[in-house]
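Researcher: Re-running this chain for the archive, since the previous output was lost when a drive failed. Same request as before.
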Amino acid sequence: MGDTLLIARSAIRSGSGGHAADVEPVFTELIAEHTRRMDALGLTA
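Model: Regenerated structure tokens:
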């Protein structure tokens, strides 16, 4: 899941035509929430 989020964020950055700033906060929060869930499960890499 984490890798998928990073790839999607990268794709949006490269093809957004300048709109990456609009979606960056969403991806930042999604990745942070995923990290917190993995930490809670003891699955931190």
